[in-house]
Design brief:
Chains A, B, C, D, E, F: This is Sugar kinase. The structure is a homohexamer. The first copy, chain A, is built from eleven helices and 15 strands. Chains A and C meet through helix 2 of A and helix 2 of C.
Chain lengths: ~325, ~325, ~325, ~325, ~325, ~325
């Protein structure tokens, strides 16, 4: 039977000028929805897992349209709650070659940011789940969001559900009075799998060094938080906005493992590639015995996301296993 | 030489599903910008006047794109100020026949709403202007906006610039602690021309009756605020979302004048038709000696706006004078 | 708690040139999905009911995309079965004024038409349902489809679930060796509510007259099939492809009731308006005590569908109750 | 065997903003091609006739694309000649209700206008034709075009091919040194069928009166040019840009015949409706014995064109005969 | 005088999501038509040859639209026959980098597959032709199609028309009871030019080896079928879906010739590149004395097709000769 | 305070098929406007300078739409003059890899080409300017344009405004009776900065050699025209239509300086990249003391333009300085 993932976090409306147009050239916006955690849930659903995303949407026609996007992309949505009247959104101008993509956020005061402790019955939401995943964006949004997240993690722990966190967070997001150094440790101590980088480990926990070796930082983190079984990272080389290289790495407490480098020569959409990696990792760890296989699955999923428009990875299981098996030919399927 | 109009108010990004699609069907949004006062300025610019709009935009790529929309539509934009990071926006689902259009606002916390007294040098902004126009939306947005507006009106009075206000306001917009009953009188007392309705006059000033005669309410208003020279109204009959009827009416202190009824049999975009009326009125009063001519001009402009997509009236002077002259044939121009 | 509807039938891909383009002008097709029964389920879901649609899709990327359309439009889809490789489709060229719309079908050999008895566990599918709805298209598609439908109706009868049939059928659809005269009586005898016309009653059952009075034909049908509680009809006047009139009528065994006439002056999409009527009838009979209210609800829903692109009615409960309450103004909702 | 029509004239690129956008709102243009005479040829081809259009296109990629448009729309194109480098074009902003459509031409110096006597082998081009049709636009373009046209008409006369002319012409088009009063009589004297109006007859030939009765003017014209067998007219009432009425009329030397009035309540594209009338007339006169039938066919074809985007009528024979038979319902064809 | 090519085979509607969207993201399909043999005819037409394609389309609006596509792309279409009601179609989801393109066919029961011996008058259709071309897809579709093809080839032989076959065929296409091993030899024995690969030669004729040398397999094939003058192949390296390499090779009975490798660094549309190669080969063999020139022409044409959207190569003669002359710069032409 | 640039030249409507479609595939054109000199002005405006463009547009709706495009892109437009009725235009079919882009011009007889001496008050237009820029296209258009340009340059000289000319010109453009050899020296002698190549220097002035060294040709030019302070060039290598390399070079009278090579691996739009270089040079020379910095700025701006659709460079100051500082990563900006 299909494994089930539950995620929790904000979902934003994403508005982007068609193709490579700049904001100043746009007379229309392409409309999708995305958010780090929901992206992971949807990616896993396209791989064949069951998935539900927990969030809070405004109680209006815009909020319902956002739910419909999640439903279309195979998520369970019955548990979603509604209230207030603002959906967070972000504007994306897609770059190319030397021209960077530009993202402008308008997410303050969103229905999700106004979530309050107790609004969610986590026991019900997590019922039947095999895995719970969160990211470092959620606790940065508001105190309410951070507390709800902690409730979720603790409930998952009690219910014997695996917990993974993609914990990197941008400092300038934390505006509600708490710092990431204050909040993250409380969340991470209950996690089984952590996706991060030496920079993240140093900034959030004061461990390792910013430019240090992945393995060393990972070890320090696992010493400090013994529940963690794997510290996972993704090394990206941005040759240009149109060419990227990806390599997965993992410290599982005994071994330091790296994948081959995946070269994406013609990027179509870079957004959400980290989430595709996380989703691939969850799928991989749930379905492969070998950590390298799981990591290769994650990296291949991440590489494939670069060729798919929107925030979410719609690669099929077959796409990912082909690529992780070394077939980079992209040859036509009839 | 062309007469010059200055307006002041919020400009929002307007996002609407293409054609008659509902929000739930949209995969893209058509993008224009609009706001009651800027709509008036642009409409007057298309009629051949000079026009500048004063507003405050976020200091980012989205704010600059909004300015570019105003520039394209002939407005002066050098005076616009920038700050903070949010542009107000609204979503519009266009209705048809019995199905109403739906508007969802996300404007709280916008750069404009955070405007503060003293941010604008009104003497400079109003330099060379013949007319200043405002609407009842601006004072409802925030205390800062209301105070800035009062500064503008008083400065205009001092500089001998005509002041018109399209003063109707929606009660549920007033969320910052003041009521319209408290704020509007201070603004209206300095106005030369007021566009409103018996309902508005009653709700805001406690004068006349909601269902009363236009002329009676108008008289009471002019008695209370003797600076007012004309009280102008627009009677709309909504046969359906696709068919509308418009008739202008004016009380000029001595005469009660009404236009013929303009029947719009195939509505293309209803939004901004009131602003087109206001713009037509300003143009009309500045260019015609006769009040009925001015009112006919306003009503014809309003009727034409119903056939133009977006918030603003792009009808030409020739379009308006033809229609006010009775040519309803819409016959092809080569 | 929300009432639940289950429907059963083929869902086709609908491909139509944008706007009013003819097939010979199209370089792209707009893509939605539709089918008489699924249209009813979705319409009820937009009104707030729970709804599931049972069908069979090809086991490929196209079949999965069809499922995603149903999910997006609020249906439960877990019960859908997959097999074979063809999705039925139809091409729609939208007409205007005197120019008729044109429909071309390519549905022979579809996965749905290859459905076989026993493929569906109806007890499971109908679990929790309050209502089961079918149309006269399904038994015309194939023997397998007709038998599966009969299984469904009988199971519904056993489980105490209301059964409605929109039974009109096009003779030229019956190509698999059985006639409608042979098949329909077996299905109709288990129905509680029947939507049809004097022509249908005559053609399928040899009762009444083609041009006879609705009430007389309805009476004869109810005499012959005593389980039927209501015979319901919809009278359409096609003034042109762009203007339609709709009036509902019902014979409930004791009374003959008609609604006012709903005039749709600017048709946007005529397809699926009959399904919107059926959905409105189901909702109405489940939520109103009075037959005229239910019928008015059905007719208002039908009228509103004419203004919505695609096969399905996305009108909200509020839209329908407003219109059935006599508000034809289509006035803007903020 | 299908009858064959040959036409001669300029074909322009038509660029129009999508939908009802104004020029100032357009970021793209919809692209079709059109010209009075080619429109007639294509319309006849859609009705089932054989048709060839003779023109001259620039000898470049744009000229070849124009030819491809004609080919797609069923015309023979082997006879077309190429030279020079400019394709005439026109910009069309579509109006609605009281807002007129706007047309801006850029056709001076086009490859067609540079056509010279002797460039066309009319015997070859007219081989197998049953009918030759021209309009009053062609002789207005250039002396070369006028002379080539006269060659064509004379050759047709010799070959026993019927000649029709839709002779109205706009005075301000005649810029090459000759007047229409000078040129038109030489062309019209060789014509069998003439489409015109009292105004046209007066302006071009000094006969009848501008506001005179159709029958009287027609008689005078036939007296002056005895080859003419029918003088045909089309009366249009422009209620608004969105609503039109059409009525055909004919003077056949013995009888004055008028059709019923065709009301087009929702105009989609007015351009080319006169050409659709001419095409319908040619088809009608070739296929019906009765003049009223032919005229009804012409008027119905004209009415249907109002619902089709672009310059050309793509109505089918079935569409036209249905409408001329009185079926205005536009009811769906499956 | 231009040489004339005749081709025979099915033409399908091709529906593809815009750009790089996946099926699950598409709300519209881009519409073109294609089929291996028609693609060759059109490609030759764009190079300046005369070309006609023989096929059978459904006798409805969709079939006629397909014919119009062929006409637009310069083909003669008068010979096409019509019957039944289904047009074959295929859905194409375009891949990128490691993500493969996906093709889903819905072609069973198409009008073409129902073609029957004797329906085509091949003497008439081949009148004036210099070359007849077919592919291995046609005999796989149905017995009728295979027999009609054999009639065509034999007629061509009698009329002294060159016959080429692009004979590779997919085993899983042969569903009507015959195998390719049974059918292909009867067709190939009458061919002058064969395009295939060692794998094809082995699978269809049991000659050579799957992984064998091209020259060896080609020799064996020519020994077995002495009418064959050239065995031609195209070696493709799929670096990724976005990068391809192409090299032509030929065995002409005395020499084994290979071209340089053409590197396509940014693929726009891979579909139909094999047909572009075949068209280039036909053009090359008809217009160049030297086999290497002909092969280079074919390979350059194939390379250029990768940059053109749709099934057909619209490269100009100038494009191909430039590239075969070594100019890979793609420098702007004014 | 921001420096101000004034430019003078024709602005054309640019019509291009969407994406990579060929002319034969287009059913719509994307619409922007462009012209060598206006492109420079707009590019400088996006970098933060003040800029005005002087031109002459037709006095109709199309001319006004062109002005609106310039306004939107930050230019001052009050000085623009209107007359006649034709806007020059060009059609652009975008190439890829080995397939060249194709440009077709229709600019003869444009309103700009009919400009006459004395129509422009250059003292007023150049008021407040720091720099005047022209290109070799303008004097090739008409005698009137050439004379107006000379007036501008001389006025600029008198007013102490820097003058730069991007002087390369295509011989086949000079159709009005004068040659470039005759006209260019009169213009160049008043210039401070010249952008050209050894080929240009040889063709226009008979100096140096076509294939000569840049430095040598530049020296000869500066000897002949001592006002010139810098001769600047841009070396382009066209690997394919999709890959380009750019390197700037300058001779400043004492030093010969070259930049690094900028590699653009995924070209989006090549048109206007030379203008982006010129704009970058003007900005660079005005804001950097060091010639290499200025040249690097120019080359980076040029490289970035390759990734922006349309004629004009919309890169921000931050984009250019990042790239000139060596950051080629195109990493996302939030």
């Amino acid at each position: 039977m299909a494994k089930k993932l539950v995620t929790f976090g904000e979902v934003m409306m994403r508005l982007s000028p068609p193709g490579y147009l700049k904001f100043s050239q746009a007379n229309s916006f392409e409309l999708v929805y995305g958010g780090g955690e929901a992206n992971v849930a949807i990616s896993c659903a396209y791989l064949g897992m069951k998935a539900a995303h927990m969030t809070r949407f405004p109680d209006n026609a815009i909020g319902r349209a956002a739910t419909q996007f999640l439903r279309k992309n195979w998520l369970s949505t019955d548990q979603i709650i509604y209230g207030d009247n603002k959906l967070g959104m972000y504007f994306l101008e897609k770059g190319a070659v030397h021209r960077p993509s530009v993202v402008v956020y308008e997410r303050e005061g969103s229905a999700f940011s106004l979530i309050e402790p107790g609004m969610i019955n986590w026991k019900e939401v997590l019922e039947g789940a095999d895995w719970f995943h969160w990211t470092g964006i959620t606790p940065a949004i508001s105190d309410g969001a951070a507390i709800c997240l902690l409730e979720a993690i603790k409930t998952a722990n009690k219910m014997g559900i695996m917990v993974s966190g993609d914990i990197n967070s941008r400092k300038n997001m934390w505006k509600y009075g708490k710092t990431m150094q204050e909040v993250m440790p409380k969340l991470v101590q209950h996690c089984d799998i952590v996706i991060t980088s030496p920079r993240g480990i140093h900034e959030m926990f004061g461990l390792g060094e910013i430019g240090g070796k992945f393995k060393d930082s990972a070890k320090e983190l696992m010493d400090a938080y013994p529940r963690i079984k794997n510290v996972v990272g993704k090394k990206r080389k941005s040759i240009s906005a149109s060419e990227q290289e990806i390599q997965g790495r993992i410290w599982n407490g005994t071994e330091y493992i790296k994948t081959e480098t995946f070269e994406i020569s013609h990027v179509i959409d870079r957004v959400g590639t980290g989430d595709a990696f996380a989703a691939g990792l969850i799928y991989g760890l749930l379905h492969y015995d070998d950590d390298l296989d799981a990591l290769n699955f994650a990296s291949a999923a991440c590489a494939l996301k670069h060729t798919i428009l929107g925030d979410v990875n719609m690669a099929t299981l077959d796409n990912v296993t082909s690529l992780m098996g070394g077939d980079t030919s992209g040859a036509l399927k009839r």
